[in-house]
Amino acid sequence: MPQASSPIGVFDSGVGGLSVLRALLAAMPHERFVYLADSANAPYGERGDAFVAARTHAITEYLCQQHHIKALVVACNTATAAAIHEVRSSHPELPLVGLEPAVKPALAVTKTGHVGVIGTRGTLTSAKFGKLMASLADQAHFVVQPCDGLAHAIERSVALPAAAPDSPVHATETGALCERYVQAMGSFGTGPGQMDTLVLGCTHYIFVAHELRALVGPDVQFIETGEPVARQTRRLLEAAGLLALPPSEQPTSPEGPESVQLLTTGPVAMMQAAAQRWLNLPARLCQSVSVP
Q1: PROSITE patterns this protein is in (predicted)?
Q2: CA pair distance 257, 206, nearest whole angstrom
Q3: Which residues in the chain land under pLDDT 70?
Q4: pLDDT attached to residue 254
Q5: Which one of 76, 147, 178, 286 is the catalytic residue?
Q6: What is the reported pLDDT for 43?
Q7: 178 in active site
Q8: 37: left (phi over 0), alpha (psi -120 to 50) or beta
Q9: 107 lies in the same domain as 171
Q10: 132 in Cβ contact with 201 (< 8 Å)
């Protein structure tokens, strides 16, 4: 049975879920985490539901059997939409947190009543997302934009040098894709009929916030899911009596390198680069694994 000292499992199709891990680390600094990026099969957003569901089940089993996780955060909107209901059924004992585009929180902050939503095609065409949007259809005007290729481009960008701060947005592959999709959506701003809120419906997208900000302007609010997911994870662990004790109250402290493990089914160099760039974590925490 899981113990309070057992790790929390976190997984995504790639390195985008590190944005969620960053929020989890900030909210629960005494916890241990095992993050798994299924980069060998990324991006999930452009694969079919059956494939994504099969990978979600395989990774859940791997994390439960090999790492004895006490909770699982599915840090991927596409995997949540495709498979979270099945994982809940097969692992009723496991505290489970999934992601969905943060459309409801966007309603609470928009003043113009016009909200943009960007995400992968797999997420935005899923039945789960369709049901969510249908329930909110009369509460705001939504512009929903699938961003084919953007998550994959963000994955590739971690191995490249960061662009100069004064470079034009379209100077990079990620910037050019952001420009294409933002322009396709319409007008952003705080005026009547403009979108004043943008929902980042993929965990990767927070890592191109600079490019998106340059395109939509300084007054548009970005809504992402890392902090709400971290709060919900903490609530579930508290309710289950599985929240880790502070170091002073436990016999051995998980503080230090062993408090985070970063696993990938793809090239370990990509994970190392992403961990260093986005979380300031050392390369030694990363390793390559196989999840059949």
Answers
A1: ASP_GLU_RACEMASE_1
A2: 25
A3: 162-166, 247-258
A4: 45
A5: 76
A6: 85
A7: no
A8: beta
A9: yes
A10: no
Structural tokens at position 211:
């490019």
Binding-site residue ranges for substrate: 12-13, 44-45, 77-78, 203-204
| Residue 146 domain boundaries | 103-223
Say whether both 202 and 274 belong to one domain.
Answer: no
CATH code (residue 15): 3.40.50.1860
**pLDDT given for residue 257 in this prediction:** 40
**Which amino acid type is present at position 160?**
L
The C-alpha atoms of residue 27 and residue 231 are separated, in whole angstroms, by 7
Whether 64 sits among the annotated catalytic residues: the reply is: no
C-alpha 279: how far from chain center: 14
Is position 3 within any domain? no
Query: Which of 202, 223, 244 is at the close of a domain?
Result: 223
H or E segment to which residue 186 belongs = none
Task: List, as residue ranges, the binding site.
Answer: 12-13, 44-45, 77-78, 203-204
Same domain, yes or no, for 115 and 82? Answer: no
Residues in the chain: 292
pTM beyond 0.90: the answer is no
Sort 238 into a burial class: Cβ within 10 Å, 0-12 / 13-18 / 19+: exposed
Dihedral sign computed on CA atoms, order 200, 201, 207, 208: negative
Residues 207 and 108 in one domain: yes
Q: What is the predicted pLDDT for the residue at 148?
A: 95
What φ, ψ does residue 278 adopt, rounded to 5°? -100, -25
Residue 274's identity, in one-letter code, is A
Q: Return the structure tokens found at 194.
A: 């403009």
Residue 2 belongs to a domain? no
